[in-house]
Amino acid sequence: MTSAQEIQREADALSDQLITWRRGIHRRPEIGLYLPQTAAFVETALRQMGLEPSRTGGEGVTGVTAVIKGGRPGPVVLLRADMDALPLQEKNELPYRSQTPGTAHMCGHDTHTAMLLGAASILATHAEELCGSVKLMFQPGEEGYNGAARMIEDGLLENPRVDAAIAMHCLTGSAWKTGTILCAIDGKAKASSDTFHIMVIGKGTHGATPELGTDVIYMLSHIAEGLYAIRSRELSSFIPAILSVCQIHAGSVDNILPESGVLSGTFRTFDEKTQALIRRRIVEISEAAASAFGGKAEVQFGESLRPTLNDRAVSDSVFSYVRELCGEDLTAVIGPVMGAEDFSEVAHKVPSVYLDVSFGSAEEGYPYAVHSPYCVFNEQALPRGAACYAYCAMRWLEEHCD
User: Fold this and answer.
1) Contact between residue 177 and residue 358 where contact means Cβ atoms under 8 Å apart
2) Residues in Cβ contact with 218 at an 8 Å cutoff, skipping those fewer than 6 apart
3) Band of residue 120 on the pLDDT scale cut at 50, 70, 90
4) Closest CA to 282 of 216, 229, 217
5) Where are the beta strands (DSSP E) in 158-210?
6) Which of the ends of the chain has fewer CB neighbours closer than 10 A, N or C?
7) How many whole angstroms from its chain centre is CA 2?
8) Can you tell me the distance from the alpha carbon of 76 to that of 55, in angstroms, rounded to the nearest whole number?
9) Per residue in 6-19, is it b (16+ CB within 10 Å) or e — as a string?
10) Cα 357 from Cα 326, distance rounded (Å)
11) What are the CA-CA distances from residue 283 to residues 102, 273, 290 (Å)?
């Protein structure tokens, strides 16, 4: 099998192409499940490598997949990159800045797509060496649309059936220098994600005569206090979880108590039982607090994401390959992150590992984290990510060859 050093040299030789791909995607960002320009861009690049891309995700979902078949029969490993941007105005004066107002790749999915295209190019060159196949997953709708689930529903993990999966995400504004690859080896990579929206209905009245109404603002304050007690009084201190009330809206006049109000927020954890408990308690606390003061609460939940949990066997193997590629100085163990990922849908179905790659530390002059309108990515990390995707796939297939 080709050595780690040779794979890195091949990735380094693709550096200009990786930057061109990344900047092309960065200039024309798209949001959501339907990314016609980005999907077409990826398909064109894959066809130029001699691959045959196809659409996966169903109607209105522009997921792109392709299979690199090895020269010998064996298992299938999936490599995933997300392609969608954020509804955010970029505030950088770069020559390749977003040309779409209010839309920008400030989470770095353009870097993910470029890295996976680079890996595809390397793997296509070494296809005859592969023992098994590599399935490429270019996903839309990661930012709140659960595009991964839609691709899975449309057969992503079948034909050929996927045996393991690897995903990577860029990291900026951290303590790790450019090109460092990080792995959560204890299993907890990204948290679950749930949003809640609570409508409280009471009876409006003049602020001078509160006894004639039912005060929804008073109810909302008690609901918020009760929800925060879930973390502090109902969960063990050893269970990682967070609940945040992020919006409270009620009233529009200084001297009138409103007849309705809303409270919304999010909660995160790494345990599906805890996730179910918090969801149940939000309903019970909201309804009970509103009822206690003469009102009514109606609770709605947004789409839920499971936690992204690294399979121990896969993560141990893949992280050992990463160390072969990068050395000890450019690898690190990362702890649980409360951000969420819909790669959890893949990880729930097949053994998976989620890695992070540093695109610049604060010390190196990259102080802004992803989702900041000022975030800038050090493109020197692109060859490292491409090599990591390719080498880890090759090594995993080789070790699991029938």
Assistant:
1) yes
2) 293
3) very high
4) 229
5) 164-171, 181-183, 188-191, 194-201, 205-206
6) C
7) 31
8) 19
9) ebbebbeebeebbb
10) 11
11) 35, 16, 11
Average pLDDT over residues 366-376: 97
Give the C-alpha separation, 336 to 350, whole Å. Answer: 20
Backbone angles phi, psi at 382, to 5 degrees: -60, -50
Mean pLDDT of 299-323: 96
Q: So what's the pLDDT on residue 402?
A: 76
Answer for the pair 130, 120: CB distance below 8 angstroms, yes or no: no
SS3 296: strand
Contact present, 243 and 231 (Cβ < 8 Å): yes
Q: Which amino acid is at 380?
A: Q
Q: What pLDDT score does 1 carry?
A: 86
186-197 residue pLDDT tens: 899 999 999 999
**Nearest CA to 352 among 181, 194, 170, 162?**
162
At a CB cut-off of 8 Å and minimum separation 6, what does 184 contact? 310, 315, 333, 334, 335, 336, 337, 354
Q: Give the confidence band of 303 by pLDDT, cuts at 50, 70, 90.
A: confident
Q: Which two tokens stand for residue 301?
A: 């939940």
Placement of tokens 């790494």 in the chain: 270
DSSP state of 177: P
Q: Is there a contact between 380 and 159 (Cβ–Cβ < 8 Å)?
A: no
> The tokens 């779409």 sit on which residue?
100
Average pLDDT of the chain, as a whole number = 97
Decide: helix, strand or coil at residue 288: helix
CA 267 to chain centre: 16
Q: d(Cα 391, Cα 7) in Å, to the nearest integer?
A: 7
Q: Which structure tokens are listed for 207?
A: 């602020």
**Cα 366 to the chain's mean position, in Å?**
21
Of residues 46, 16, 13, 32, the one with CA closest to residue 113: 46
- E strand map for 39-123: 54-56, 63-69, 72-82
Length of the chain: 402
Please name which of 149, 77, 68, 69 lies closest in space to residue 311, comparing C-alpha atoms. Answer: 77
pTM exceeds 0.90: yes
* pLDDT higher than 80, residue 332: yes
> Band of the pLDDT at 34, cuts 50, 70, 90?
very high
